[in-house]
Amino acid sequence: MKSGDTIINNASVNAYVGRPDLLDYTSTKGAIVAFTRGLSNQYCGRGIRVNAVAPGPVWTPLIPATMNEEAQKQFTSPIGRPSQPSEIATCFVFLASTDSSSISGQTIHAVCFDYHRDIMIFANFFDRTVVLSSTARYTRAFAKSAAFLMSYEATSL
Fold first, then answer.
1. Does residue 16 carry a catalytic annotation?
2. Buried b (16+ CB within 10 A) or exposed e, 4-21
3. What residue spans define the domains of the chain?
4. Homologous superfamily of 6-156 in CATH?
5. What is the pLDDT of residue 127?
6. DSSP 8-class letter at 12
7. Rounded CA gap, 107 and 109, in Å?
């Protein structure tokens, strides 16, 4: 790998939740978060960025193939439904782009939130909350009213 390259690992929100019924899955996803930070520390000086995305529930072909109907009904998120892969993909695109050129060793916690029919992704960079959105108008309006954004501006995708 050369300077300017990026590595993006796939973690899970379960690494931060600590689900007792998914102990092996939760443990391995937690290890990926630690691996991401360690690898970032190892390669950052070479100009190679390493980050991760930790999605919440995402509807993939694996869900109907491995879950019964009752389990599928309970497979949800704070917005009342699991995310679609395309909604999480924007996090990976952001981390792969030059828009995130100063971010390394971080994990985006992707949780869908329906805001005026626009999908916004909440991310945790450097222990501060940042809002990423496909619609700049909503991002800017939300960011102006959110005191917890501190000194970070919302970045529009």
1. no
2. eebbbbebbbbbeeeeee
3. 6-156
4. NAD(P)-binding Rossmann-like Domain (3.40.50.720)
5. 40
6. -
7. 6
Q: State the Cα–Cα distance between residues 44 and 5, nearest whole angstrom.
A: 10
Per-residue pLDDT of the chain (157 residues; tens, 9 = 90+): 999 999 999 999 888 888 888 899 999 999 999 999 999 999 999 999 999 999 988 888 888 999 999 999 888 877 788 888 888 898 999 999 999 999 999 999 887 544 333 334 444 443 444 444 444 433 443 444 333 333 333 343 3
pLDDT, position 32: 96
Structure token digits, residue 16? 């931060």
Catalytic position from the list 16, 25, 115, 152: 25
Query: Which residues on adjacent β-strands are paired with residue 133?
Result: 120, 156
* Residues recorded for the chain: 157
What pLDDT shows up at residue 6?
95
- Token pair, residue 21, equals 């019924």
The type of residue at 6 is T
Q: What is the DSSP string of 83-141?
A: BPHHHHHHHHHHHHSGGGTT--S-EEEE-EEEETTEEEEEEEETTEEEEEES-HHHHHH
Q: The tokens 């995708």 sit on which residue?
A: 157
66 in Cβ contact with 130 (< 8 Å)? no
